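Appendix C reproduces, verbatim, an entry submitted by the partner laboratory led by Prof. M.T., so that reviewers can inspect both the input and the predicted structure.
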Amino acid sequence: MLRIDDGPASAPASSAAPAAPAAPDEPRHWGRRIVAALVVIVLVAGALLGDAVARTRTETEVADQIATAVGGEASDIGVSIGGWPFLTVLVTDRLSSVDITAPTATVKKDQQSATFTDVTVHASGLRNVRDLQGTVMDRADATARITWKELSRLSGSTITSAGGSRVQLVRTVSVLGASVSLKISAVPSIRTEDRRIIFSKPQAAVDGISVPSTLLEPAVASISDKIDLPDLGNLKYQSLRADSRGLVVSLSGDAVAMKDLTGE
């Protein structure tokens, strides 16, 4: 019987070896994230620096212009611009707020002149801010002091503190046909409609004898007639009070033009 041998039997096919797991690429992803974060930080820091530089430069320029207008030194004028980012002003032409301080400011308007000290101004909602003299404030509140020396200059009489809320005015009056130099004590206030400082409740005595108020009132009225404070447009005089260094005036107003503050 013929037998055909086909050769040795084939070995069974072996199963394929499992593929090795791919190396994780997390380090690469974290590296990209760190680089992206650093880029963002640099951009933000650059924007902050640019905004701060522009703000500071503008505050300095505003101080220069105010100093020129009120006769002060620019280095003494404090200007602080509120709101962030500042550079949006290039688009909106608006600022949220500005605070201004000045140790002294002389305002001249319509032949009237007065020098104020310790001036503070808080303004909000400023419009047209790229032109200082065209700037309008939605709201402005201010305080300033009129020193005794300046008040005496304005009135033509010597005015000083009498302690508390009263002032002392030195005035010559006629008493029983004789001219007498009196030291009159009175309470100061401001008549808002015409910006005059007036004096009420006058008191004086000669040799321990009280002088009737009917004699004193014309004397203090003649002093008041000479104290006409500058018109500051929509920035209105609201009240005043006496302290040891002079009269502290409070002012406020809506739609106040920047030129009203400088008297231009």
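Helices lie at 26-70, 89-92, 148-155, 213-224, 258-262. Additional entries are available on request from the coordinating office.
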